Amino acid sequence: MKQSFIDTLLASHRDASSCPPPDEVIRFFDKLVGTLFPEFSANRVENESALREMFNTLNSELKTILSQNRECIRSGEKEIEERFFSALPDIHSRLLMDIDAMYLGDPAANSRAEVIRTYPGFYAITAHRIAHEMVSLGVKLIPRIISEHAHRQTGIDIHPAATIGDHFCIDHGTGIVIGETTEIGSNVKIYQGVTLGALSVKKEDARKKRHPTIEDDVVLYAGASILGGKTVIGKGSTIGGNVWLTESVPEGSKIYYQAKMTNSDGETDTITFR
Asked: CA-based Rg of the chain, rounded to a whole angstrom?
């Protein structure tokens, strides 16, 4: 083996950023979700002291993870793990609202427990709400590890810095992309294949708002693409499947995609092959 190759690898090991391995972060995340929602876990906590001990263990594990990630924490912030666990009651309350939104928004859902145990949308929004709290506390990289793990598990790609309001319903979910600077209001429902993306992918736009704003009570059907940082979907709007939007629409809009096809008789809504 060439010495130059060995030297290159040694240099990369010496210079690699300090961060816990992804598996350690994911074990913490799944254990936390199982504690917040026992339907997600094989273990049951039988009494208060056991539950408090579980949280103490999780607190210690997060502290260990953060201690390996100090260079990715904003300006040497202290006691982040304490502030994160103080936010858990609010995160839990918001997730209960998300479960309600998915249960009430999907006629196929038989129970809230079914949503917790089986819906990819629940797993994805749980990862997002936990990762987003870490982002707000100045933690870098670890939130992205959590969100990308959820992406691989569910096919739903939500950047941890995106802002998402209460009572968020994801139906089916596969193929959804929600970009970093997206802002989503409350009572929003989105279907599979929806993209909330950027018009430009220039590196110099990294600090600009590149992704759209979705106001309250909006429904985005499958395959809709809403692009651009100045694009606002007004409150109460419905955006149909496969619509491509790069401009704002006012409150109460109903935007649908109409396919135009032609055959030997001219334009038609339907083409029949014989």
From this structure: 22
**Greater confidence, 55 or 274?**
55
DSSP 3-state of 119: coil
Q: Residue 235 burial by CB count (10 A; 0-12/13-18/19+): exposed, middle or buried? A: middle
Tell the burial category of 94 from Cβ atoms under 10 Å away from its Cβ (0-12, 13-18, 19+): middle
Give the CA count within 13 Å in the CB-facing half-sphere of 96: 7
Closest listed residue to residue 169, CA positions, set 151, 149, 192: 192
Phi/psi-derived region of residue 193, left when phi > 0, alpha when psi is between -120 and 50, beta in every other case: left
- Give the distance, in angstroms, between the CA of residue 154 and the centroid of all CA atoms in the same chain: 10
- CB of 160 within 8 A of CB of 146? yes
Q: What is the pLDDT of residue 257?
A: 85
Contact yes or no for 154/176 (Cβ under 8 A): no
Tokens of 104: 């009430």
